[in-house]
Amino acid sequence: GVNAISFSSHNSCLYTAGADGMVCQLDSSTGGLLERFRSSKRAVSSIAVSS
After folding, report:
1. Does position 16 have pLDDT exceeding 80, yes or no?
2. Can you tell which superkingdom this protein's organism belongs to (predicted)?
3. How far is 24 from 21, CA to CA, in rounded Å?
4. Mean pLDDT of all residues in 23-50
């Protein structure tokens, strides 16, 4: 599941951090998945985006 969400006003994207260690970049207009990143082998509990 999703543990954290952050919004980037720079590129109008949402970023989610998950219990599976994945970070997903989503288009905030459509909700479509743009990219997935393996950030950790453990759960990610928080996320921050800086532009």
Report:
1. yes
2. Eukaryota
3. 10
4. 94
Tokens of 26: 């989503």
Q: CA neighbours within 13 Å on the CB side: how many for 42?
A: 2
At 28, list the tokens.
């905030």
- Helix (H) or strand (E) run with residue 18 in it: strand 13-18
Structure tokens at 31: 């909700």
Amino acid at 28: S
Domain residue ranges in the chain: 2-38
Contact by Cβ (8 Å): 4, 44:
yes
* Number of H-type helices and E-type strands within the chain: 0, 4
Q: Is the pLDDT of residue 51 over 80?
A: no
pTM exceeds cut of 0.90: no
